[in-house]
Design a protein that fits this description.
mainly alpha
Length: about 200
């Protein structure tokens, strides 16, 4: 049970929490990445696939929580302003979105089975530069409680997607999954534009 003060803070910050959760979930894009996950684990048994997904969730969650909790100190350590980070992150997100829209995903054949859960599923597919940038941005603008809660909610939904990935895949089909991936890429591009505009506005302000 969360302390009463945290619950009150979350209730008062529901719009920010909803925006942070949606942004993180869209950038992580577990639904759009279903074809990629299946392709990377197609040679595995059911037990091995579950182990790989479990490792991916634990690794990705730990990595993103670290940035959600101490992102401020990381910026301070390197002397980076949030505006500069937002512009750089926005440009990086735009590159990722364009890559998904134009090129899609090319499987790396050299990745060993035992490490697929960590690389590339956990990082960079689930927790890449875009998710890290978004976590640090919301840490600056909305605070630790909102950011950490958004990370937790994002990974709860991602866990559900991975748990039921086979029914999801059968329901969507290859075409449906590819369409969702492209739509998510458009949303990521829109988020990237917003980050760049806010960063530039913050610098001139």
């Amino acid at each position: 049970m969360l302390p009463e003060t945290i619950m009150i803070h979350l209730f008062c910050s529901l719009p920010d929490l909803a925006k942070a959760f949606i942004s993180l979930f869209v950038i992580m894009d577990p639904v759009g990445n279903i074809p990629i996950f299946l392709s990377l684990t197609e040679h595995m048994s059911v037990k091995e696939r579950k182990r790989a997904f479990h490792l991916a969730l634990v690794t990705g969650f730990t990595l993103l929580m670290c940035f959600a909790a101490v992102g401020n100190y990381i910026l301070f350590l390197f002397g980076i302003t949030i505006e500069s980070f937002m512009i750089a992150g926005g440009i990086l997100l735009m590159v990722i979105a364009l890559r998904i829209l134009i090129l899609g995903w090319k499987r790396e054949e050299t990745v060993p089975s035992e490490s697929i859960g960590v690389v590339p599923i956990a990082c960079p597919l689930l927790v890449g530069p875009g998710a890290i940038t978004t976590a640090i941005m919301y840490l600056q603008s909305s605070g630790v409680i909102v950011t950490v809660t958004a990370v937790i909610l994002s990974f709860i939904v991602t866990w559900l997607v991975l748990k039921f990935i086979d029914p999801f895949s059968r329901f969507l089909g290859r075409t449906g999954s590819l369409v969702i991936a492209r739509v998510m890429a458009l949303i990521i591009a829109a988020i990237a534009v917003e980050l760049i505009i806010k960063g530039i506005a913050g610098i001139f302000k």
